[in-house]
């Protein structure tokens, strides 16, 4: 069944029209009966048959009047709040009541005259006498009905008058109470400390907080709209102020509301706010394992995001696997592992993965666990647990182990190595003594001493932190010692230092531990990018094998290849262009976006032309240009500008905002 929207006002209007039609029809019947009665009573020499017709017509006109009264009462119920219509209906019924009274009075007089003449002539029979009596009773009954109807209407009017008086008294009392409450609230506000209105910088997440703060202090006061607009400009900063400055030049009564409308459209739009919330919880650095404060803040952000998007009916923006996966990836690894178990358990029980609300609650619980003062994750390493050479020399099985003196900033523990790095924790050598004596293990980082070091003293700590190196360089030297030699073979006049990166330390060489990178010396990569296609594009023809001649858009390697080509073009043509142009290509491009700022319009115009000319030599065509300078934009061909700038008037229209590298 389709849904039908019913307008209450339209339904009432149609009902009134219908009732008025029915009332008009009943009134026509009343008039016809009235005319019939008047036609009979004109005859002074009425027969018994005439008397019966009159009596029947009197009964009919009474019923007709009752029906008319019913229709008018129905109309009164519909228009009961319209005093003018009620008055018209009452005047109408009074008129119809007068007509009925006139008819009844005429019938009664006609009966009297007819009976009197019949008596004087001794022609009145029993039938006529009986008919006269019935007519009198009927006339009396009709008169009483009219009187009853009038009395009822009078009582209804009095009742309505009483109700209006009662409503008036109630309204007066409510007005006085509201005034008293307003005075009390004003007194309470005067006693509160002064509230500073926050400034709005365009952050969509702060839009509603700013608007409510502004309305409480200014927007809902009785000051003029001109003053409100002035305050609104004062509390908006930066680009936000530029957006609403145009409203100052128009009528303040309109300008204030126009400014509010612009702010709502640009910064209070639900889609804009929803995107800002999603970005806040997905575009953040990954959390460190022991950052309990950071995890707590992140849990609060996710919860606030869920609450806000739910209120805006936009929860679907975040309640999906793609966005939830991004949120989980921000968590420390051990919490990610817990969530995977939680998600699998929910899937087994409910047949579907948990939603964003479940994830938000999980992160809050994880933050509470990590921040628990008693049982939370706490990995303190005290500087007092450092091992000295004096401690080592006490034990015979530690002879030959030399520990360097570590002082100053290098004596502080800044890195904890987790168990998920077995390579760096694998023992190279172990030295142990008796069962109750400490032992030493050697890894690629050096020696670590475990167990009680001080004899005769009960120690609560039985683990001493690993030997640290004074500098990162000294640690690297322990990883690989690279022999080197000089050579000038095959290139006379050029002396080079060659390092033996294949030399192994601890069974591992440097060349085995780094990535070689892509092969840029041949085109064999094209064979990996082959595809089948019909010859000459004819679907009925033979299928042939093709190879890509350019890198795939979306390939993980494509961005580095494009960046290499840009830099190569700049390097090959460095002698033909100024330093600023070359530096723009090498330092100001991110994949296919260039973001550059100069201190004058003239430099901007020159730089655009030079960068285009330079990269044209490498086969690049720069397009989709935009700028905050109208002069610079006018120097760029229309077809090379960004789409939003092609159809605007650079002299008068407002320049649109563009996003570059995720920033507007």
Helix percent band: 40-55%
Strand order of the largest sheet: 1-2-3
Q: Quick one: how many beta strands?
A: 11
Rg of Cα set: 49 Å
Sheet-strand content, in percent, reads 5-15%
Mean pLDDT: 78
Provide the structure class: mainly alpha
- Could you state the oligomeric state of the chains shown? single chain
What gross morphology would you assign?
elongated
N-end to C-end Cα span: 49 Å
Instruction: Output the number of helix runs.
Output: 20
Please name the defining characteristics of this protein.
disordered N terminus; 20 helices; two-stranded antiparallel ribbon
Summarize the structure in words:
The structure is a single chain. With 664 residues, this protein is mainly alpha-helical. The protein folds into six domains: 8-170; 204-268, no CATH class; 272-370, no CATH class; 383-466, no CATH class; 484-513, no CATH class; 558-645, no CATH class. It contains 20 helices and eleven strands. It has helices spanning 8-41, 48-78, 83-120, 126-191, 207-219, 225-235, 238-244, 252-267, 270-282, 292-311, 321-329, 333-350, 356-370, 389-393, 422-425, 472-479, 558-572, 579-587, 601-616, 630-634; strands spanning 429-431, 439-443, 446-450, 484-487, 496-499, 504-505, 508-509, 530-534, 543-547, 589-590, 593-594. The strands form five sheets. Strands 1-2-3 form a three-stranded antiparallel beta sheet, with no helix packed on it. The protein has a two-stranded antiparallel ribbon with strand order 4-5. Strand 4 (484-487) and strand 5 form a beta hairpin. Helix 2 (48-78) packs antiparallel against helix 3 and helix 18 crosses helix 19. Residues 1-6, 120-128, 456-479 and 519-523 have low confidence and may be disordered.
